[in-house]
UniProtKB/TrEMBL annotation:
Classification of source organism: Bacteria, Bacillati, Actinomycetota, Actinomycetes, Streptosporangiales
Matches recorded under InterPro entries: DNA_glycosylase (IPR011257), HhH-GPD_base_excis (IPR017658)
Coiled coil: none
Organism listed in the record: Herbidospora solisilvae
Example GO biological process: DNA repair
Superkingdom field: Bacteria
MF GO annotations: catalytic activity
Name by which UniProt lists this protein: Fe-S cluster assembly protein HesB
Length: 188
Protein backbone atom coordinates (compact mmCIF):
# COMPACT_ATOMS: atom_id res chain seq x y z
CA UNK A 1 0.00 0.00 0.00
CA UNK A 2 1.14 3.52 -0.74
CA UNK A 3 1.74 5.73 2.29
CA UNK A 4 0.85 9.45 2.05
CA UNK A 5 2.10 10.96 5.30
CA UNK A 6 4.46 13.66 4.03
CA UNK A 7 2.53 14.69 0.93
CA UNK A 8 5.90 14.36 -0.90
CA UNK A 9 5.75 11.35 -3.27
CA UNK A 10 9.43 10.38 -3.01
CA UNK A 11 9.42 10.51 0.81
CA UNK A 12 6.10 8.66 1.04
CA UNK A 13 7.34 5.99 -1.36
CA UNK A 14 10.30 5.27 0.94
CA UNK A 15 7.97 5.01 3.95
CA UNK A 16 5.79 2.55 2.05
CA UNK A 17 8.64 0.20 1.19
CA UNK A 18 10.94 0.48 4.21
CA UNK A 19 9.83 -0.61 7.67
CA UNK A 20 12.91 1.04 9.13
CA UNK A 21 12.07 4.36 7.47
CA UNK A 22 8.52 4.16 8.84
CA UNK A 23 9.79 3.44 12.38
CA UNK A 24 12.34 6.28 12.17
CA UNK A 25 9.63 8.67 10.97
CA UNK A 26 7.46 7.69 13.93
CA UNK A 27 10.40 8.13 16.29
CA UNK A 28 11.02 11.63 14.91
CA UNK A 29 7.33 12.55 15.25
CA UNK A 30 7.55 14.73 18.33
CA UNK A 31 7.90 18.48 18.77
CA UNK A 32 7.86 19.08 15.02
CA UNK A 33 5.13 18.93 12.35
CA UNK A 34 4.21 15.38 11.33
CA UNK A 35 5.18 15.87 7.68
CA UNK A 36 8.63 17.10 8.68
CA UNK A 37 9.11 14.09 10.97
CA UNK A 38 8.14 11.55 8.34
CA UNK A 39 10.25 13.30 5.69
CA UNK A 40 13.24 12.75 7.98
CA UNK A 41 14.00 9.18 6.84
CA UNK A 42 14.04 10.31 3.22
CA UNK A 43 16.38 13.19 4.02
CA UNK A 44 18.69 10.86 5.95
CA UNK A 45 18.69 8.30 3.13
CA UNK A 46 19.49 11.03 0.58
CA UNK A 47 22.43 12.18 2.69
CA UNK A 48 23.66 8.59 3.11
CA UNK A 49 23.24 7.94 -0.61
CA UNK A 50 21.02 4.86 -0.13
CA UNK A 51 18.12 3.45 1.86
CA UNK A 52 18.39 3.24 5.63
CA UNK A 53 20.08 0.16 7.06
CA UNK A 54 19.82 -0.64 10.77
CA UNK A 55 23.23 -2.35 10.94
CA UNK A 56 24.97 0.58 9.27
CA UNK A 57 23.27 3.19 11.46
CA UNK A 58 23.94 1.24 14.68
CA UNK A 59 27.62 0.94 13.76
CA UNK A 60 28.11 4.57 12.65
CA UNK A 61 30.22 6.98 14.60
CA UNK A 62 27.75 8.92 16.80
CA UNK A 63 29.18 12.31 15.84
CA UNK A 64 29.19 11.49 12.13
CA UNK A 65 25.55 10.39 12.26
CA UNK A 66 24.59 13.48 14.27
CA UNK A 67 26.28 15.62 11.60
CA UNK A 68 24.10 13.98 8.94
CA UNK A 69 20.96 14.93 10.86
CA UNK A 70 22.28 18.41 11.70
CA UNK A 71 23.20 19.47 8.15
CA UNK A 72 20.96 22.26 6.86
CA UNK A 73 18.08 21.86 6.72
CA UNK A 74 18.21 19.84 9.92
CA UNK A 75 16.17 16.64 10.04
CA UNK A 76 14.65 17.57 13.41
CA UNK A 77 14.44 20.46 15.82
CA UNK A 78 16.87 18.48 18.06
CA UNK A 79 19.06 16.69 15.51
CA UNK A 80 21.81 15.61 17.91
CA UNK A 81 19.52 13.99 20.43
CA UNK A 82 17.39 12.40 17.69
CA UNK A 83 20.50 10.99 16.02
CA UNK A 84 21.26 9.19 19.29
CA UNK A 85 17.70 7.89 19.52
CA UNK A 86 17.75 6.63 15.94
CA UNK A 87 21.05 4.84 16.60
CA UNK A 88 19.56 3.26 19.76
CA UNK A 89 16.53 2.10 17.75
CA UNK A 90 18.79 0.68 15.03
CA UNK A 91 20.93 -1.15 17.60
CA UNK A 92 17.80 -2.62 19.22
CA UNK A 93 16.59 -3.84 15.82
CA UNK A 94 19.98 -5.43 15.15
CA UNK A 95 20.05 -7.10 18.58
CA UNK A 96 16.45 -8.33 18.66
CA UNK A 97 15.27 -8.57 15.04
CA UNK A 98 18.46 -9.24 13.06
CA UNK A 99 18.31 -5.66 11.75
CA UNK A 100 14.96 -6.25 10.02
CA UNK A 101 12.48 -3.62 11.25
CA UNK A 102 9.49 -5.37 9.72
CA UNK A 103 10.10 -8.42 11.90
CA UNK A 104 8.79 -6.32 14.78
CA UNK A 105 5.31 -6.77 13.32
CA UNK A 106 5.33 -9.52 10.70
CA UNK A 107 5.41 -12.40 13.17
CA UNK A 108 3.51 -10.85 16.09
CA UNK A 109 0.76 -13.29 17.04
CA UNK A 110 -1.64 -10.76 18.56
CA UNK A 111 -2.28 -7.07 18.91
CA UNK A 112 -1.17 -7.25 22.54
CA UNK A 113 2.13 -8.88 21.54
CA UNK A 114 2.69 -6.29 18.82
CA UNK A 115 2.02 -3.49 21.30
CA UNK A 116 4.50 -5.07 23.72
CA UNK A 117 7.13 -5.28 20.97
CA UNK A 118 6.55 -1.67 19.95
CA UNK A 119 6.72 -0.33 23.52
CA UNK A 120 9.98 -2.26 23.84
CA UNK A 121 11.57 -0.14 21.12
CA UNK A 122 13.78 2.72 22.30
CA UNK A 123 11.86 5.99 22.10
CA UNK A 124 8.43 4.34 21.86
CA UNK A 125 6.20 4.93 24.84
CA UNK A 126 2.68 3.51 25.03
CA UNK A 127 0.99 6.31 23.08
CA UNK A 128 3.57 6.32 20.26
CA UNK A 129 3.39 2.52 20.11
CA UNK A 130 -0.42 2.57 19.93
CA UNK A 131 -0.37 5.17 17.16
CA UNK A 132 2.18 3.14 15.19
CA UNK A 133 0.18 -0.05 15.73
CA UNK A 134 -2.90 1.76 14.37
CA UNK A 135 -0.86 2.97 11.39
CA UNK A 136 0.23 -0.60 10.66
CA UNK A 137 -3.32 -1.91 10.95
CA UNK A 138 -5.12 0.84 9.06
CA UNK A 139 -2.64 1.50 6.27
CA UNK A 140 -0.44 -1.57 5.87
CA UNK A 141 -2.94 -4.32 6.66
CA UNK A 142 -0.95 -5.59 9.65
CA UNK A 143 -3.91 -6.81 11.68
CA UNK A 144 -3.09 -9.55 14.17
CA UNK A 145 -6.05 -10.57 16.37
CA UNK A 146 -6.90 -7.79 18.83
CA UNK A 147 -4.94 -5.09 17.03
CA UNK A 148 -7.68 -2.46 17.29
CA UNK A 149 -8.06 -3.03 21.03
CA UNK A 150 -4.30 -2.86 21.54
CA UNK A 151 -4.17 0.39 19.55
CA UNK A 152 -6.82 1.90 21.84
CA UNK A 153 -8.67 4.95 20.54
CA UNK A 154 -6.12 5.26 17.70
CA UNK A 155 -7.41 2.00 16.24
CA UNK A 156 -11.01 3.16 15.95
CA UNK A 157 -12.46 3.09 12.46
CA UNK A 158 -13.22 6.52 11.03
CA UNK A 159 -11.20 8.38 13.65
CA UNK A 160 -8.95 11.28 12.71
CA UNK A 161 -6.68 11.28 15.77
CA UNK A 162 -3.19 10.64 14.50
CA UNK A 163 -0.79 9.90 11.68
CA UNK A 164 -2.50 6.50 11.42
CA UNK A 165 -5.47 8.27 9.84
CA UNK A 166 -3.61 10.40 7.29
CA UNK A 167 -4.10 9.17 3.74
CA UNK A 168 -4.28 12.47 1.86
CA UNK A 169 -4.30 16.23 2.36
CA UNK A 170 -7.95 16.22 3.48
CA UNK A 171 -7.43 13.64 6.21
CA UNK A 172 -4.28 15.48 7.32
CA UNK A 173 -6.41 18.61 7.80
CA UNK A 174 -8.97 16.59 9.81
CA UNK A 175 -6.24 15.13 12.06
CA UNK A 176 -4.82 18.63 12.65
CA UNK A 177 -8.29 19.93 13.56
CA UNK A 178 -8.85 17.05 16.00
CA UNK A 179 -5.49 17.72 17.66
CA UNK A 180 -6.24 21.44 17.96
CA UNK A 181 -9.60 20.69 19.58
CA UNK A 182 -7.92 18.31 22.03
CA UNK A 183 -5.37 20.99 22.96
CA UNK A 184 -8.13 23.54 23.51
CA UNK A 185 -10.07 21.09 25.69
CA UNK A 186 -6.94 20.31 27.73
CA UNK A 187 -6.37 24.01 28.45
CA UNK A 188 -9.87 24.43 29.91
Amino acid sequence: MYIRLTQRPEADELLGRSGLALLVGMLLDQQIPMEWAFQGPYTISERLGHDLDAREIAAMDPEAFAAILSAKPAVHRYPGSMAGRIRQLAAHLVDHYDGDAERVWTDAGSGAELLRRLTGLPGFGKQKAQIFLALLGKQLGVQPPGWREAAGAYGEEGAFRSVADVVDAGSLAKVRATKQEAKKAAKK
